[in-house]
Amino acid sequence: MTERESGWGLLGAAGARPLVAILWLVGLAFLAHLGWLLYSGGLGTVTLAGYLWEGTILGMSYGLAGVGLAMTYSILSFANFAHGDLVTSGAISGWIAAFLVAGLGDLSIRSLVHLGGPYTLNTNTLGLSVTNAPLAIVAGLVVAAAFTAVLAVAIDRIVFRPMRDQSGIALLIASVGVALALRYLLVFGLQAGPRGLTAGQVTPSVAIPIGVGSISVGAHELTLVVVAALLMLATHLVLRYTKLGTAMRAMADNEDLARVTGIPTERVVLTTWLLGGALTGAAGFLVALERGTLSMTLGWDLLLLIFAAVILGGIGSVYGAMVGGVIIGISSRLSLVWLPESLVVVAAFLVMITVLLVRPSGIMGGVRTA
Amino acid sequence: MSDQDRRGPVGSRVDAVADGVRSFVSTSDARLLLVFALTLYGLFTVVSVLLGYNFNGIVDTLRRITFLSAIYAILVLALNVQWGYAGLFNIGVAGFMAVGVYTMAILSSPTTNTFPGLGLPLPIGIVGGVLAATVLGLLAALPALRLRGDYLAIVTLAMAEIVRRVFRSPVFQEFSIGSVQLGTGGSRGMNLPENPVRALFYQNPGEAGSPPNALGSALFDAASAAGIEPSVVEGWVYALMLVVAVGLVYWLLRRVGNSPFGRVLKAVREDEVVARALGKDTRLFKVKAFAVGCALMGLGGILWRLSGGYVSTTMFQPIYTFYVFVALIIGGAGSNTGSILGGAAFASLLFEGPNFVRRIVTGYVDVGAAPNSLYDAIAALGGLDLTPLVAYSLSDVNVSALRLVLLGVVLIYLIQNRPEGLLGHRKEVASPIDLTDRGGEEGDG
Amino acid sequence: MSGADAPAGGQETETTDGDDPLLTVRGLTKQFGGIVAVDGATFDVEAGTLTGLIGPNGAGKSTTFDLITGVQRPDAGAVVFDGDDVTTHRADRLARAGLVRTFQIARELSEMTVLENVMLAPRDQRGETLWRSVLPGARGAVIEQETALREEAWETLEFLELDHLATEYAGNLSGGQRKLLELARVLMTDPTMVLLDEPLAGVNPTLETKLLDRIHELRDRGLTFLLVEHDMDVIMNHCDPVIVLHQGAVLTQGSPSDVREDERVLEAYLGGEVDG
Asked: Are residues C57 and C37 in the same domain?
């Protein structure tokens, strides 16, 4: 039995459409102002190009990290608040592997395993960069994905599977517990504090001329964008053309139906955690690569923005997460035209809240969860 | 052979004591809370003695757990109205606390501070802070009406983060309205008005080295005869004020809960469709419950930080909201008494406890120097030597980290196995009168 | 519960005594995707009657019910209750106006006692205003009203023979007892009209008789009932008039004997599924 929406006048179900129209107008007004600034010289083309590139980088990170979240949201019907810490796990496991591959023999194992930490580690000695030590970087990426996939499955077995029949809220609360336990185990093991990862000097970058100036495109930035895009493409292929992928899409739409038609749901759940976990781990590794530093709260700090991306794109929609991520990324940089740096994230959150209130199905109209 | 015989003389005596306590405690909530408080005090006294504290140290330890227990009790009671009674999932508690404290600061901080306030009298600042938290709560109630469970969780978390970032932003670090200079201190934080307890005991409460007034002198002299320092006396007076505040909030919320209003809230939490079908305008009830909760969160934040004289946005990170949530789940959502129990249990056992455990263990067991890293500690396991690992775990930072791991594990365990916590299964009947007492009337068909 | 006595719109009264029907449904229509669930349903319910609503599966009984009680919004048509146009009113507003319903699958509030469930129901409780419950002076008035309501609650429970379960948590009740609780709850709202959604589903014969006796007694006291039931015998033996729905519209209505002899009704039931 469906209940009619209980809404206060303006935000009532019937009233949402005018509000959406207003929001579209507001968005267009911003774009128009942007155009005006460009034309009148208030905003340089170089600056704008810079924003667009940085926004793409951010957007691809949010998008890639968001795909895993969207998958678990749609198939398991709960908001996984431990997702950020899975991102961090990916970054840490991947980078430990990268350090070991790059530095074994030259530096002590314990300093490598700790990514420096309590032991000083000269990242210039390590000389890590994608051009300088490609093997290490690739190894790191693979380990990040594999480790996080396995970790995600383990967490599911221990925490979420015994709770399959409980409500979305109960699972959410449990995931908060997982987030705390995971994050602070990492802190326990590796000590808090940011670590430098890559060697600035050996990381090449290219200057792309734009108008009168140029923007700098770093190798690591490019790596993130390209690898993320490839991974998203691979995900698309898996979802569209494999049996398991189709089963995942079916389960996302309707779990009872899937069970009735004989799709083994526990197997699908396993695949979801493996695939989602792998993408999440890769995202963490790539973000750390691009930034050149890593901290234990890397993922947690991103969590709300990843949620924003998933919500904007449509909760439960994998493609929505990708699109939402890019939109959030680019608009967060573009908003620098009007807002100070410290309030950019605030704007992103306000957008997310608005989307939830006005059009919770997001852009791609994802699956609604209970 | 009966159970009692099987237990042997000591065992059956323990059983008898346990039964005695249980029957004493089950008669009234006041007794339950009293026994719990005494147990905690007893435990921490023993711990302090083991750590070799002098009398002043013991008294100060008890003060600290009283203070924290009272603060968390208020916050958990507030969250209980929203989540335990009305079923509204709010993980933005820290944001409402922040709004309360910062508004109070802006209203009442002295105009001579680095980041000045308006210098208004403290009571105005406190009322203003609570009002501001209520207003934000009314704003947040809007999504609370439209959104379900996890969506509301995300929105409230985002709102709390928005609040925190706005207060942290350099944009508002210093600003002026007209000719009036104001500020939030940005990432540096700002100083708060003077601790009101000082006004009771000092001639010039605003000055650090001020001599005590008549009342102050008398009190401090009496205390120092017992070896207790003035700062501890001040602290205890503040803590006792907090306990009174907890009592007032508890009394208030019992009235709210044990009433037709509370009854509708319970119905809304379990099945809103039924409440609507019986003619209740559930939106109004939810908004009111949410606002009451937010007001109390603002108050809780103010009472917490006012004693420390300083506020910064690091005090309002999401982790604090999760602390309050864990405490509520431990105590039992839906029970006011449970909220107080949960707050006190969390603050003293889960939060402060691990540090005491660490100090005792390191005080009595020589584990040697802690290795620099976990790697070294684990490497030592190869040689069957556990002490480096223990030593590593017991270092200051690591106990703090492990404490949070414990918190996560406790949360998972409770949600999986005992989501109703300690007292949540006791469904308190929502009515101001005893419904079973038909009073004087002769019942007939 | 006020309203003009003159009927809204241009509908004609169908009774001979000139009183307006309590509930008037005109041209009610609801579509779900391509399926028309309710197709221009039109009927009246007179005050003080125990009116039955029957029809084969898929006739649109549940949807019509939902449309009247504010759970769904009709695509077209009107509902007039006690002189007021309530077509777009939601469930809580209707309940406040005196039109209440029970649920087919009993929705007892399992974490509250039977007494609490029943005390929840009455309208206009002073104590439902937050400040009145809290302030010492006002609370006295709340307690006064609560005491009076408590008496009423016990009487209602005794009337439905649930009083021995008063302090039991509603979640511990049997299926039949929950149905009785549903009825007790709506009665406490002091309604003008009660819509009963398959109140006898899953109820044993003894309880069934008891329930029907009570309903008749309440009808004698002036309450109006609209009863949806699958059990034809119940409807035919207890309701007058009976309205027959078929494919979303009213096929016929009249006394039980009229309906029983109407060939179209037989065809409708045979043309559809086997009648249970």
From this structure: yes
**Type of residue at C15:** T
Q: How many domains does chain A have?
A: 1
Q: List the domain range (segments joined by +) for residue C120.
A: 109-172
Residues C228 and C146 in one domain: no
Per-residue pLDDT band at B130 (split at 50, 70, 90): very high
Q: Is B277 close to C153, i.e. CB distance below 8 A? A: no
The reply to whether C99 falls in a domain is: yes
Region B325-333: mean pLDDT is 93
Chain C residues 96-115 with a CB less than 8 Å from chain B: 96, 100-101, 103, 107, 109-113, 115
* ipTM entry: 0.88
Residues C233 and C265 in one domain: yes
- Angle in degrees, 0-180, between the axes of helices B122-146 and A341-358, rounded to the nearest 10: 50
Residue C276 has pLDDT above 50, yes or no: no
Structural domain boundaries enclosing A67: 17-358
A8, part of any domain: no
Structure-block tokens of residue C100: 């209440």
CA distance C105 to chain A (A): 11
Identify the helix (H) or strand (E) that includes residue B386: none
Residues of chain A falling short of pLDDT 70: 1-17, 123-125, 201-202, 255-256, 258-259, 262-264, 365-370
Cα–Cα distance, B151 to B216 (Å, whole number): 52
The chain-wide mean pLDDT, for chain B, equals 87
Average pLDDT for C8-36:
70
> Tokens 């207790």 belong to which residue?
B228
pTM: 0.88
Measure A242 CA to nearest chain B CA, in Å: 31
Local structure of C44: helix, strand or coil? strand
Domains and CATH numbers, chain B: 29-364+395-417 (1.10.3470)
Same domain? For C34 and C98 the reply is yes
Relative to beta strand C76-81, strand C50-54 is: unpaired
Same domain, C42 and C53: yes
Q: How many domains does chain C have?
A: 2
Q: Quick one: closest CA in B to A113, which residue?
A: B375
The radius of gyration of chain A from alpha carbons, rounded to an integer in Å, stands at 22
Same domain, C148 and C199: no
Nearest CB neighbour to B165, from listed A6, A162, A345:
A345
Could you tell me if C119 and C40 lie in one domain? Answer: no
Instruction: Say whether both C104 and C117 belong to one domain.
Output: no
- Nearest CA to B362 out of B383, B405, B393, B321 is that of B393
Question: DSSP labels for C4-20?
Answer: -SSPSTTPPP-STT-PP
pLDDT per position as a tens digit, B144-162: 888 888 889 999 999 999 9
Q: Mutate which of B154, B166, B172, B270 to test chain A, going by most A C-beta atoms within 10 A?
A: B154
Q: Give the pair of three-digit tokens for residue A45.
A: 């083309």
Partner residue opposite B401 with nearest CB, options A1, A3, A187: A187
